[in-house]
Amino acid sequence: MMKINREETSGLIEGVMDDLAEKKGFLSITDEAELRKVCRSAKEILKTTDKIIKSYIRVSTDKEGIVRIPAYRIQHNNISGFYKGGIRFSEHVNESEVENLAILMTLKNALHQLPYGGAKGGVHVNPRKVTERELNLISKKYVQRFKPDIGPDHDIPAPDLGTNEKIIDWMVGEYKTIHPGEPYLGSFTGKSVENGGAKGRREATGIGTFLSYSWLMNEWYKSFSDGAGENLARNKQWETIQRLHEKASNKIDINVAVQGFGNVGSVAALEAYNYTNLRHKIVAVSDQHATLYSSDGLDIETLDQYAKIHFSLPKTQEEADKLNLGAEVLPPESVLTCDSDVLILAAIEDQVRKDNMKEIKADILVEGANAPVSLEADEHFENVGKVVIPDILANAGGVIVSYLEWKQSRVKEMYTRDEIIGEMSRQMKMTFDRVYDAYFTSDSDTMRYRCFMLALERLTSLLYKQGKLF
Ligand code: NAD
User: Fold this and answer.
1) How far is the CA of 88 from the centre of ligand 1 (A)?
2) Kind of pairing between the strands at 155-159 and 83-90
3) Would the CB of 284 count as within 6 Å of ligand 1?
4) Tens digits of residue pLDDT in 208-257
5) 208 Cα: distance to centroid of ligand 1 (angstroms)
6) Which of 21, 181, 224, 440 is found 20 to 30 A from 433 (Cα to Cα)?
7) Residue (of 166, 147, 108, 109) closest to 121 by Cα position
8) Helix (H, G, I), strand (E, B) or coil at 159
9) For ligand 1, what atom is nearest to the CA of residue 101?
10) So what's the pLDDT on residue 236?
11) CA angle, 191 as apex, 147 and 350 as ends, to 5°?
């Protein structure tokens, strides 16, 4: 059973809101008591969720006859725009997990200044264990069940773990049947390009995740020629990054490990594999069945081709040997603790926790997935001079491109892939500059705390300006 992080997220929101209440000049409120009251009200709103909808999808299966599958759509907050968030198909889906992911969407969209609030959906099903016909039925029934709550001007779902453009296309088809004659292209994002999707959507999150790491290594590092100033924690991190630069300039590769080899992980691994600015070697990749490890580096293009055909990495040593990769097949969790400098987490939640945080060798952890590092582990890494680039900062490429796809449906014009990826990078970079400025000049908080702070400042300011805090 996966640990539920909803309480951790709420706890962090609470802590940040208490700090905002003490921030002089915030919202231009000069009266301290008034500012505390306003922040307390905002905290109450943002700690709680607007709407939790649970339903059961009834499907006639080939093996078991009728089954009833729990399904959710959870809308956390829409102060900054229409609800927005993916739909997850997984046998681990439960209400707390979906709610936590909805809250993170509100924060992510606010951090990146997108005109969206936060929502998330989930269906308690393993998509690999049902037939194509059953998957199609589940997808269509999801739209039927939640039809009053989704739509282009209200709540716009997208793919997430276990879902993809094929499923989203089916959902759009069902939406169109339910709402004949109405605009439908903006009802979902993550559609296939033929069906009105944005070019580059599938790769966007993986590309953005790797970009976030490369900006840290290049832009941030180079803006300090001689250490990061007085602050001990930041200096330790600067030294960590400097050590990796020295490795690369001595022609020693920076070792990268990637957990998860789906939409996000495979693309982030390919980006690292093809990166020419600094020497990198991908020593490990994993999925839910296995880790593939080679200290000489893995051929990611071959593995990507293999995964596209087999929907997984090689599961056994025999399967791996047939590819001549020189790779060892290890248990899935080995990817976390192998000898790497950079660990890209692109699978599921709660992978690095109190019980394994001290075994992590990587110095830089990048959260392509949502909430893979617990708050306790995050603080530990901060204290020992490692860098964690948090989810709501690093994995926003997907939702930024979703926004462009949604915008495309309104202006009735298709953007090219270069325009989409260029605009996504530009928007992410603007957020990075704001976060890095705030984080690297602060003394003791994690980068996640700084991201929450910037997001909650924006949300509180919108609540205040829209008159919701009286
Ligand atoms: P996906 O279904 O395409 O791939 C998930 C990968 O994780 C698969 O390789 C799967 O085998 C692996 N995995 C599952 N359980 C695992 C385990 N216990 N150990 C190791 N590997 C495991 O999903 P995705 O779209 O790549 O999403 C991955 C993560 O990124 C999720 O947390 C998702 O919420 C997050 N995310 C995705 C997007 C997006 O645009 N796809 C955007 C933001 C965040």
Assistant:
1) 10
2) parallel
3) no
4) 999 999 999 988 777 766 666 667 778 888 889 999 999 988 999 999 99
5) 15
6) 21
7) 147
8) strand
9) 34
10) 86
11) 80
Ligand 1 atom closest to 264 (CA): 26
- Which residue type occupies 93? V
Please report the pLDDT score of residue 307 as a whole number.
Answer: 97
Q: For the chain, which domains are there? A: 50-198 (3.40.50.10860), 202-395+427-449 (3.40.50.720)
Verify whether ligand 1 is closer than 6 Å to residue 395 (CB atom): yes
Mutate to test the pocket of ligand 1, among 111, 160, 306 (most ligand atoms within 8 A of CB): 160
* Cβ neighbours around 329 below 10 Å, total: 20
Strand 155-159 relative to strand 118-124, pairing: unpaired
pLDDT at 1: 39
The residue ranges of the chain whose pLDDT is under 70 are 1-4, 224-230
- Judge whether 434 and 457 are in contact, CB under 8 Å: no
Task: Say if ligand 1 is within 6 A of residue 398 CB.
Answer: yes
Phi-psi region of 371 (alpha: psi -120 to 50; beta: other; left: phi over 0): left
Query: Which structure tokens are listed for 324?
Result: 């001549």
Residue 372 Cα: closest atom of ligand 1: 32
User: 211 alpha carbon to ligand 1 midpoint, in Å?
Assistant: 18
Query: Would the CB of 455 count as within 6 Å of ligand 1?
Result: no
Judge residue 22's burial from the number of C-beta atoms within 10 Å of its C-beta, 0-12 exposed, 13-18 middle, 19 or more buried.
Answer: exposed
Catalytic residues: 120
At residue 234, the pLDDT reads 81
